[in-house]
């Protein structure tokens, strides 16, 4: 549905301001029907990336295709047609304050020259879809943040797009409202078959709805894959630190983690995070751990979490960091294929 081919973006400098490379060598495909997340820190290049998809920015190298069409090659009429196919929702909703919810949703249809009877026939079901039938005549100032975003979503759907771009659509919302908007996006994706490409700095958003994720850092994609795989076995330092900040899975109290050393001294214990899959894996795992590594295994933290609908568990354990125990543990992990992460060493 969306394909980036070696896409790059350099913003030209002017005067004393040097040119800036915002994106470099982006190869990425969003499959039709997927909810794909692009995650990265502030300034990583997420907004620039998403703006390449609807032609708000033009790549300075490489290409971006939507449904096989090279976006940069479109003329003005082609771009207008593309933007009917590609809806967008925004962090600050971008509603017109002088228009009611109904009139905001109707706007793209008015611009497309649709008759007012047809507009009514389109807008009312859309307001119903997003759960705002009773707010049609309200102005944005009379709506909550979540309700405004629902209007934004209904407006984005007005032209029956095939693709929805979401630019930090839940970043201004509280956690509960975020969940309800994500649930709405998931329903739209499933019921209307709409492909969704969302950018966010919030791990929680990707974790809840995105089946696929790409991690962007310094204008490059540093890691990508199925969300479950990337989140349970992160390979890149950026992914690890974003996950740590989001406190996914089992988390150690600060007073333990702040005292950890990178290598063991005599008498130290190894602190290791074990990651396993499925709600039921917890119990047999702990029993086997003790049987294989020895009785001196402490469980420091444990949690069962869910990523894109799939359960996973993590357990932080400690055991003596002597050579023999470490080797027994390494053999056990290799044999079982358990994903592990050494957090450090301490007492
Ligand atoms: N028009 C522009 N001219 C020059 N530099 C720009 C321009 N637009 C963006 N940039 C720079 O490109 C980099 C990426 O910006 P972008 O907005 O894509 O990041 P982001 O990941 O979306 O960050 P945020 O989450 O803070 O919006 C930033 O360093 C930004 O300053």
From TrEMBL:
GO terms for cellular component: plasma membrane. Residues 2-243 form the ABC transporter domain. It comes from the Bacteria. The keyword Cell inner membrane does not apply. The keyword Lyase does not apply. CDD domains: ABC_MetN_methionine_transporter. GO terms for biological process: amino acid transport. Coiled coil: none annotated. Keywords: Amino-acid transport, ATP-binding, Cell membrane, Membrane, Nucleotide-binding, Translocase, Transport. Pfam families: ABC_tran (PF00005), NIL (PF09383). GO terms for molecular function: ATP binding; ATP hydrolysis activity. Part of the ABC transporter FtsEX involved in cellular division. Important for assembly or stability of the septal ring. Belongs to the ABC transporter superfamily. This is Cell division ATP-binding protein FtsE.
């Amino acid at each position: 549905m969306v394909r980036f081919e070696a896409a790059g973006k350099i913003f030209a400098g002017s005067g004393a301001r040097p040119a800036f490379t915002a994106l470099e060598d982006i190869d990425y495909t969003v499959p039709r029907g997927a909810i794909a997340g692009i995650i990265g820190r502030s300034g990583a290049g997420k907004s620039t990336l998403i703006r390449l998809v609807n032609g708000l920015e033009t790549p300075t190298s490489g290409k971006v295709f939507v449904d096989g069409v090279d976006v940069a090659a479109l003329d003005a009429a082609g771009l207008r047609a593309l933007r009917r196919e590609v809806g967008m929702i925004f962090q600050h909703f971008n509603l017109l304050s002088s228009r009611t919810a109904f009139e905001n949703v109707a706007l793209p249809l008015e611009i497309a020259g649709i008759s007012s009877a047809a507009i009514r026939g389109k807008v009312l079901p859309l307001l119903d879809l997003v759960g705002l039938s009773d707010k049609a005549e309200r102005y944005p100032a009379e709506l909550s943040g979540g309700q405004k975003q629902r209007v934004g979503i209904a407006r984005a759907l007005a032209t029956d797009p095939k693709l929805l771009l979401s630019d930090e659509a839940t970043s201004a919302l509280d956690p509960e409202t975020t969940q309800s908007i994500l649930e709405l996006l998931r329903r739209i994706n499933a019921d209307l078959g709409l492909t969704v490409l969302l950018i966010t700095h919030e791990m929680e958003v990707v974790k809840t709805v995105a089946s696929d994720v790409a991690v962007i850092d310094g204008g490059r994609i540093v890691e990508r894959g199925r969300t479950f795989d990337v989140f349970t076995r992160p390979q890149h330092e950026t992914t690890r630190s974003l996950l740590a900040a989001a406190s996914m899975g089992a988390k150690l109290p600060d007073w333990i983690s702040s005292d950890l050393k990178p290598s063991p001294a005599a008498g130290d214990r190894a602190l290791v995070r074990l990651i396993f899959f499925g709600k039921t894996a917890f119990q047999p795992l702990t029993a086997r751990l003790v049987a294989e590594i020895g009785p001196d295994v402490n469980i420091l933290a444990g949690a069962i979490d869910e990523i894109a609908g799939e359960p996973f568990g993590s357990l932080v354990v400690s055991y003596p960091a002597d050579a023999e125990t470490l080797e027994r543990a390494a053999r056990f992990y290799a044999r079982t294929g358990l994903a592990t992460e050494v957090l450090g060493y301490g007492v």
